[in-house]
Amino acid sequence: MDKVVEIRNLSYNYPDGTPALNGVTLDVVEGESVGIIGPNGAGKSTLLLHLNGILQSKNGAIKVLGMPLINKNLREIRSKACLVFQDPEDQLFMPTVFDDVAFGLVNLGYDEGVVKEKVGKILERVDLSGREHRSAHHLSFGEKKLVSLATALVMEPEILLLDEPTSNLDRKERREIIEFLDEIDKTKIIVSHDLEMIEQLCQRVAVMNRGKVVFTGDREIIKDDSKLKSFGL
Amino acid sequence: MKHSFLDRYSDLGSIIHRLDPRVKVVFFFILIFVIVSTPPQELVKFTGYLLILLILLLLSRIPFLYVFARSLVIIPFVLLTAVFIPFFKGGEVAGSYNFLTLHLTISHKGILILQNILIKSWLSVLSLTILTSTTKFSFLLKALETLKIPRVLILIASFFYRYMFLLVDQIMKIKNARDSRSFKKNPLYQFKVIGYMIGELFIRTYERAERIYLAMLSRGFNGTIYTLESFRINRFDLCFSGGLMAIIFLIRLWR
């Protein structure tokens, strides 16, 4: 199987000097779903922000779909590895749902007709047809999360990078999001505290603690409470 | 928390709502220009404009009181700046008063100017209120964009519209958090707390702006926002606004 993400010895300090990542090495192969778990402040979200080049570190190397993560490749990488932020209020910034979902496509330079067709299809898929002209503000939280997903999915990425896709959802919304994610046949890297969801969606789990990947392996680890505790969870 | 204080009735489907937003924007701006350029003493003409606005309001099916209350928002500002004009303008004296050592005179010319400013500003704001309550904000932005208003301004307005509600939510949350733990009623202390609240709000907003920028970057943002245009002007739009425009010009040019 092809490696779609290769992270080698990645370290990163925040501008104020706080170390966030400390020698992370991780591979993700095509088509698999990897769950990244770990205590707050372990560096999970920071790692995710590196994978489409929003944060760039001089220490260590990342390859996405075989392309080294350098400025020249950013456009290509960002169109193929899409990041969905935890807070939909950050992800949805345009005046209407349609504009938000279309944003990435329009930036990629698609024609108007193509954009409309793709946006229409994806909104149908997340069951939100007819909400195109609503403001994101007028959607429920679950709907906002779905539209956030749609903004990434519409770009037909090869890799989905998801930061806490189930946070703050009620039971029903959470179940729907999980079912929806399960149907998506793409490489997924999911950062979350929702271990049950990770267990359902991901075959492989990486545990992070204090800026390091301390464990990678089968999802069975989630059932092993004492081991999780030893990793600071 | 839900708010919709900007374009509350913009979802109604009246003929005014269905007019092409670009046509509406142009129409209302011309109307305002005509109102502002009308000589101040011609009260009949102003009544004519008011009648047209009322007809538009009636057709749009928006509650009259809602629009009326909103249109009054401008009055305090206008009064504050213009109320002293009658005292300072020279000319024929309408009346003079003595308060202790203070001697005040009011001139006819001054009163006319005050009346002029009040009527024109109120009619203009009334027009804008009708425009904004019959047009969805996103449509309004798009209309302005196609009318070649600078993109930066439209972006600022667009982000403002998207995040204004969130900002209000955040203020309310901070306020609730304060109220549920606040025991001191000392006003000086309260001021201090309000200072902290503003600081907190600033930091939260700043950080959110940063995250939004990251979200934009990850979807290929490269400095310019492209949007798709989806308006179509039909014959009714042109006839309706053209007809009204003709009436307005007729009123304006009538001797």
Attribute tags:
heterodimer, A: about 230 residues, alpha/beta, six-stranded mixed beta sheet, four-stranded antiparallel beta sheet, 9 helices, 10 strands, about 35% helix, about 25% strand, globular, B: about 260 residues, mainly alpha, two-stranded antiparallel sheet, 11 helices, about 5% strand, flat
Description:
The complex is a heterodimer of chains A (233) and B (255). Helices cover 36% and strands 27% of the residues of chain A. With 233 residues, chain A is an alpha/beta fold. In chain A, the strands form two sheets. Chain A has a six-stranded mixed beta sheet with strand order 6-7-8-3-9-10, sandwiched between helices. Chain A has a four-stranded antiparallel beta sheet with strand order 2-1-4-5, with helices on one face. In chain A, α4 (97-108) packs across α5 and α4 (97-108) runs parallel beside α6. The longest helix of chain A has 14 residues, at 112-125. The model of chain A has no long low-confidence stretch (mean pLDDT 92). Chain B is flat, with a radius of gyration of 24 Å. Chain B starts with 14 loop residues before the first helix and ends with a helix. The mean pLDDT of chain B is 85. In chain B, strands 1-2 form a two-stranded antiparallel ribbon. The longest helix of chain B has 31 residues, at 187-217. Chain B has 255 residues and is mainly α. Chains A and B meet through α2, α3, α4 and α5 of A and α8, α9 and α10 of B.
